[in-house]
Amino acid sequence: MKKIGFLSFGHWSPSPQSGTRSGADALLQSIDLAVAAEELGADGAYYRVHHFARQLASPFPLLAAAGAKTRRIELGTAVIDMRYENPLYMAEDAGAADLIAGGRLQLGISRGSPEQVIDGWRHFGYVPEEGKSDADMARRHSEIFLDLLRGEGFAQPNPRPMFPNPPGLLRLEPFSAGLRDRIWWGAATDATAVWAAKLGMNLQSSTLKFDESGEPLHVQQAKQIRAYRAAWKEAGHTREPRVSVSRSIFALVNDMDRAYFGGSEGEDHFGYIEPEKRAVFGRTYADEPDKLAEQLKEDEAIAEADTLLLTVPNQLGVDYNAHVLESILKHVAPALGWR
């Protein structure tokens, strides 16, 4: 059995060819797709976070709204760029959204990917400490956020408060018990996956990672996952960790599917998303359902993970993306023993 969800970047464009032409369209359609995915029996609705772009940016209003409109499906991010975040404000927003959703948030956080502007986090008021990098800053913000989610008091109460206080030091409210165990780290390297394991975070691995061996993405990811699990065990955590991988997978079951994805290249690519950091970009899987199942059997990282996030072409509209999910759930997942 494997949990299957979708991952949307929430792209929007005023182009007449786009079915998602505004920020409002992207947000409202994201909620509608979560509702449709739940009705189809999918397990998760996840959203990417990008700043300074025509994409989804502020996740917590979206997660809260989707949480209010659904009852069962997990709601998450992949990932929130912690270079941009105030961890205290984020703890309040996350607690509120999780309570609205009834404890269904699965928050992916990370250092983030290259953004649309230079050092965008500086515009948000964040600057790394002397001698530290933006990646160091993201990890520090993450550590503070994780500590806050433990729910322990840390602030000295006012002796003459406007409203009565409970005894002792005060914590941030609203507090959602259990959210600390539902935080994931989006790791682009083996080393950051090991770091996440030590801190007790679940692991997210994307459709790309920094190239560390020259091997195909799924092979490198599988090694990353095994290193993560070994570090988790060594850290002595008592619960079982969760691991997700993202993939672009399309079952070609009608003429529209073949028109959109029938010519997709079925191989990984190597390139650069940051200077001097070579990355491996995962292939797109697109084929008839029986052939697709055979190809996916060979993906070592999918086999290692308990959760699969399907990237969706959100600008093709809610109905078509629901069809994409249904095709995988109905025609592919049973053949692989995922359902």
Q: In words, what does this structure look like?
A:
- With 339 residues, the protein is of the alpha/beta class.
- Helices cover 37% and strands 19% of the residues.
- The strands form two sheets. It has an eight-stranded parallel β-barrel with strand order 1-2-3-4-5-6-8-12, surrounded by seven helices.
- It is globular, with a radius of gyration of 20 Å.
- The N and C termini lie close together (6 Å).
- 43% of the residues are buried.
- The mean pLDDT is 96.
Q: What is the arithmetic mean of pLDDT?
A: 96
Largest sheet: 8 strands, parallel, barrel
Topology as H/E string?
EHEHEHEHHEHEEHEHEEEHHEH
Morphology call: globular
Structural class: alpha/beta
Biggest sheet strand order reads 1-2-3-4-5-6-8-12
Tally the beta strands: 12
Helix content: 25-40%
Spans where pLDDT lies below 50 across 5 or more residues: none
Total count of helical runs of at least 4 residues: 11
- Could you tell me the strand content as a percent range? 15-25%
- Rounded to an integer in angstroms, the radius of gyration calculated over CA atoms is 20 Å
Overview features:
single chain; 8-stranded parallel barrel; 11 helices; 339 residues; globular; alpha/beta
Summarize the structure.
This protein is α/β, with parallel strands linked by helices. It has 11 helices and 12 strands.
Helix-strand layout with pairing:
Layout (H helix, E strand, L loop, with lengths): L2 E6 L14 H18 L3 E4 L11 H11 L4 E8 L5 H14 L4 E6 L9 H4 L10 H15 L34 E4 L3 H9 L3 E4 L2 E3 L6 H19 L7 E9 L3 H7 L7 E6 L2 E5 L2 E4 L1 H9 L2 H5 L2 E5 L6 H15 L7
Parallel strand pairs: 1-2, 1-12, 2-3, 3-4, 4-5, 5-6, 6-8, 8-11, 8-12
Antiparallel strand pairs: 7-10, 9-10
Helix pairs in contact: 1-2, 1-11, 2-3, 3-5, 6-7, 9-11
